[in-house]
């Protein structure tokens, strides 16, 4: 880990990914209230809540614009970016704590609606919402103690079966075919993108997770892909931590 890079931060500094994840987890400790989640995000933006050094940095355009909408008084259901160019990874990077809230929920419609509503605070395009649904669905399966590969296989079936029936999402499934249909793990590193585009982040994270054998190797692989390293590593590492926890494995 090298200090004082692009954003002039010391080694060990967490980014907006972790800060907004902490905000969601903090809110969920008192139950699920979408307005409270939004309030925590505003507090981060305005008061540097849950930041490592009292400073907000590296905030994405869509996230910034959406939180400004919240500050102006708009409801969280009407603040997120809805355009095709609003499909950065800003909601994907913060949504993992929902897996704990939804861990024992059996109602699929409710489960996915919660994921959708939390994503929509900043990212309301169906592509971002579907990416968050894939991320949390996989996390929920890992919490059941399934192997990384078994959980991946079941996640693909669950997502395809549910969203192929949803008109607003069925056409979006095509953009996720490398994850949901093809053999992503057979791709070479040169074929994996790790940009801030939500599908790139999700693909890269699955590839890092499922082509390595331990936490350290997976996260190091994510970082070494370059580009949006903090988010790829956050998504990959988040899954691995859940899997280790569910299976009582030590962290290497």
Key descriptive features of the protein:
ADP-ribosylglycohydrolase fold; mainly alpha; globular; 252 residues
Summarize the structure in words.
With 252 residues, the chain is mainly alpha-helical. The protein has one domain: ADP-ribosylglycohydrolase fold (Orthogonal Bundle), CATH 1.10.4080.10. The chain contains 12 helices and no strands. It has helices spanning 16-28, 34-47, 61-71, 98-101, 108-120, 126-143, 148-163, 167-170, 177-180, 198-210, 215-224, 229-246. Helix 1 (16-28) packs antiparallel against helix 2 (34-47), helix 5 packs across helix 6 and helix 6 (126-143) packs parallel to helix 12 (229-246). The longest helix is centred in the middle third of the chain and has 18 residues, at 126-143. This is ADP-ribosylglycohydrolase family protein. Keywords: Hydrolase, Magnesium, Metal-binding. It comes from Paenibacillus polymyxa (Bacillus polymyxa). Mg(2+) binds at residues 15-17, 228, 230-231.
Strand residue percentage: under 5%
DSSP summary, beta strand count? 0
Q: CATH class, anyone?
A: Mainly Alpha
Helical content class: 40-55%
CATH topology: ADP-ribosylglycohydrolase fold
Order of helices and strands: HHHHHHHHHHHH
Instruction: Characterize the biggest β-sheet.
Output: none
Mean pLDDT: 92
* Estimated structural class: mainly alpha
Low-confidence stretches: 3-7
Q: Architecture, according to CATH?
A: Orthogonal Bundle
Whole-number total of structural domains = 1
> Radius of gyration from the CA trace?
17 Å
What is the count of DSSP helices, taking H or I runs of 4+ residues? Answer: 12
Shape: globular
Give the termini separation: 17 Å
CATH superfamily heading: ADP-ribosylation/Crystallin J1
